[in-house]
Structures
1.
Amino acid sequence: MYSQAAGMTVYLVGAGPGDPGLLTVRGAELLARADVVVHDRLAEASLLELAPATAERIDVGKRPGLPVAQQYVNELLVEKARAGLEVVRLKGGDPFVFGRGGEEALALLDAGVAFEVVPGVTSAVAVPAYAGVPLTHRGLSTSFTVVTGHGRRGEGDVEDGGPGWEALAAAGGTIVVLMGVSQRGEYAARLQAGGLPGTTPVVCVHWGTRPQQHTVRTTLAELARVDLEPPATIVIGQVAGLDLSWFERRPLFGRRVVVARPREQAPALVRALRVRGAEALEVPVIAIAEPHDGGAALRAAVGELSTYDWVVFTSANAVERLVALVPDARSFGAARIAAIGTGTAAALTGARLVPDLVPERFVAESLLEAFPRPAAPGARVLLPRAAVARDVLPDGLRAAGYEVDVVEAYRTERGQPPPAALAAAGAADAIAFTSSSTVTGYLEVAGREAVPPVVACIGPVTAATAREHGLEVSAVADPHTVEGLVDALERVFKGP
Ligand code: SAH
C-alpha cells in the first residue's frame, strides 16, 4: 500500500480528439470544479472554458523548438496536488493512448499523490468515424491495430517489442497510424515488403472531428506522395475504401462564422453552428455587468412582484437576474408573464415559469399588438431590462393605459476580445448578429475591417441597425431565432 500524502487528486482526463462534444460527462464534471487545468497546446479552447474563470490554466504543450520536458510536467502535477488543489491534466484523445499518461500516472504513484484516469475518445477511433471509415466491417476487416508511425530505432515503439511493420502487414486487419505523417514513406514501404499490396486503400485525416477536418484518399503505394500535414490519423486497409462521409457533408462545413455575442449567451448559437459543420469564432463584444445601482431597484421590485399585473421580459439576462433574487416560488402571485424571443421564453421555462404571452414576432411592436388592454385602471407592468434599451415598449404600454415600472436589471459593457480573436474574425466567411447592441458593440470593438463578407441578422431591427452603420446585410432570419439565423446563413452559402 502507498501512503497518501496530504493533497488532492490529479485527474488525468481525456479531452477527445477536438470536437468539444466528445468530452465525457465525467471529464466535464471535473473541469467544472478544477482549481488548475494543465493542458497541451492544442487543447480545444471551449473545453478550457468549462473550468471556473478563477482556475489556473497552464499550457505545457510542446512547441517546435521549445520542448517541455515530461519531467517538468510530472513535477508540476505533484506540486499543485500537494498544494491542496484539484488538478485536471487534460490530454488529447485518451490519456493512455500515446499520451504519456502512463508516465504521469507513474510519477504520481511514486510521489504518493492520488490520481484518477478519465478515459477519452481516442483519435484512433473517433477520427476515422468522422471521416466515414468504419474500422471493422463484415467481410473486410475483423480487427484493427493502433500503432505509432514515429518509430525510432532502439527507442521503444514498434521497433522493439512491437510486431514490426512486416508482421503487421501479415496479420491482416485495419492499421491505424498515429503520429505517422513524417515517416509515412518508410513504413508504407515496409508494409509492402511485408506483403500488403500497393493498391491497399488509405485514408489520411488531418485535424479530424474539427471544422478544419480534411480527408485525403490514396493508396499505400502513393501514401508518401500525398500532401499531408500533422496532426493526422492514417487508416490503412480495405475499410479505407469505404466512404461513409457525413461530417464533411454538413451544410456549413468548413465555413467560419463570427459570433458577436455576450459571452453568457453564445453557447446556443455556437452549438447550432457546430452541428451544421461551421467553425464558430466567438468574439465577446458585450459583457453583462451589474446594474448601476448594484441591483437595489431590481431587489425592491422583486419584493413587490405580486403587486404587478404583468412582468414583461425582453431578454434571458433579465430573466436570470430577476429569478436569482426571487426568494419564494410564489412571489409572482397572480402577476402574468410575457416574453419577447424564444431565448427569453426558454430562460423562463428553465426557471419553471411558463410565460402567458410570447408574441409571434420577437420585437417590441409585436408584443404591443398582442398585449391585452388593462383589466382595470392603474394596472401595473414591471419591465426589468438593460440600462440602455429602446423606449418603444414602455411608451406603447403607457399609451395603452398601463402604469409601467422600468427597472434596470443589468448593464452591458464593452467586451475585450483578445487580438488573435479579432484577427481570425476578420478572415472569417460570415458574421451572425443577434441584436442591435451586438452590431454596434462589434463595430466599436473590432471595427469595419473585421466584418466578414456575409452579414446575417436575427431580425429586422438588428438588420436595420447594421444597415444604418453601412453594413450590407446578406440575410435576415425568419423566424427570429438562433435556428432561423443558422438557416439563413445556410441559404446564403447554398446560393440561389
Ligand atoms: N492520446 C491521443 C493521441 C496522442 S498522439 C489520442 O488518444 O487520440 C498524437 C497523434 O494523435 C497525432 O499525431 C495524430 O496522429 C493523432 N491525432 C490527435 N488528434 C487528432 C485529430 N484531431 N485529427 C487527426 N489526428 C489526430
Note: Confidence is low (pLDDT under 50) at residues 1-5, 154-162.
2.
Amino acid sequence: MTPTADLSRITSCLSDYDPNALSVAQAQRIIREFVTPVAAVEKLALRSALDRVLAADLMSPIDVPPHDNSAMDGYALRGADLQPDQAVTLRVAATVLAGDGFAGTLQAGECVRIMTGAPMPAGCDTVVPQELVQADHGAAAGATVTIAPGVVKPGDHRRRRGEDLQAGKPALRRGKILRPADLGLIASLGIAEVPVVRRLRVAFFSTGDELRSIGEPLDPGCIYDSNRYTLYGMLKRLGCDLIDMGVVKDRPEAIEAAFRSACENADAVITSGGVSVGEADYTRQMLARLGEVAFWKIAIRPGRPMAFGRIASNGKSAVLFGLPGNPVAVMVAFYFFARDALLRMMGVESAPLPLMRAISASSVRKKPGRTEYQRGILAAENGQLTVRLTGSQGSGILRSMSEANCMVVLHHDQGAVNAGDAVDVLPFEGLL
Ligand code: AMP
Ligand code: MG
C-alpha cells in the first residue's frame, strides 16, 4: 500500500474541524484527501478487463475508421456533379461492397454503387442513399441512376477517416472503469491486452455479541447478521476482492485480533457496529494502539457515528471504515463515505453520483443542520419524475431500503419539504 498523508495533518488544516459535529461534506473531503490509489498494475486480455480500472492512458495506434467510407447503402459520386436546380443522371461505373475497394478513379458523370462501410472510391465525396434515386436497369455496371435536385448536398453520408479515433491521440484516459462500449472501442483499435489497476482487497466483519450467522440457531435476544450481506453486495458490485471475516464478539482481544489480521491482508477494512457511544470506548483505545483512527459524529441521518483512519500490523497497513451498526445506516455510510474512497483507491479518477430532481409526493420533516438520506420510490408520471418515501424510515428498517429504488437527498442546509416541492434524488440502478 502506498504511504499516505496522516489524518491529524489533514484535519489540522481545517479551521472548523470538530469530530463531534462534522458535516457530510467535511467528512467526505477528509476521506478523499486521506486515501491514495493502489499502485500495482496487471495486464489483462481485453474481455477480462470488463469493469476494471484502466491504469494508463490508451493511445490509439490507428485511425478509426481507417478510411473514408459510406454511411449508407447507395451511390457514391462527385459532389461537383450535382446540380442545384435540375436532376442529374450518372452512369454506374462499378459496385463496391464493405471490405472491397475500387481501384479506379471516378470520372465526371459517373457514380459507384456502394454499401454501408465500403471505402469511398477515389474522387468521390458524397453518397446518395439508394432510396432517394431513380435507378435504371437495377444496379449493374452500365446502368444509370437519376438524382432529383436537392436530395443530397456535396459531402453528405460520408464517414471521414479518423472521425471516431485518431492515431497518436489518447483513445481512453487512465482511471476509467471499462464498460462494454470501452471494450468495443479498444477492440476497434486492434488492441488485445490492457493495463488495469489490480483489484482492491477489502476485509470486512460485523461486531456484536447479539449477532448470529445464517445457519446458527437464533438464541434469545439475538438477531441474524445482515450487514455482512449488504456489505458483500455493495463491495462485490464495486469489483473488490473480498475477505469475509464473519462475526467478531464484543471482546477487545477478539476485535484487536480481527483488526490485525484484516490489515495484514487487505487494503481496506470495513466493520459494522461498535462505534456508537458506549461501545466505542474500548475500541477507540485499542485502535489508538494500531494506528490513527478518528471517531466522528457526523451531521447525517442515518449513520451518525463512524470511525475512520488507518491501522497497521506487522508492517502492513489498511484504511479503516468503522461503519455504524444499524442496517440502513451501514448502507448510507457505505454509499456516501466508503464508496468514493474505495473507488479512489481502485484508481478511478472520478465517479460523481448523478443527482436528479423529482417532485416529492408528500411533505417531509427535516431540520437544517444535517444531511438526511431517505429511501424513496422514483416514478415517471405524465412526463414528470415524482418520488414518494418507502414508509417507515427507521435506521433499523432494512425493508425501507429494499423497497426503494432511490435515495432522497435532503441537504445540510435544507429545511422541511412540502408536497409538490422538487427534491434531489439518487437513483440506485442504471443500465447494468
Ligand atoms: P451498534 O452500532 O453496534 O450499537 O449497533 C446498532 C444497532 O444495529 C443494534 O441494534 C445492533 O443490533 C444492530 N446491528 C449491529 N450490527 C448488525 C449486523 N451486522 N446486522 C444486523 N444488525 C446489526
Ligand atoms: Mg454492537
Note: The radius of gyration is 30 Å.
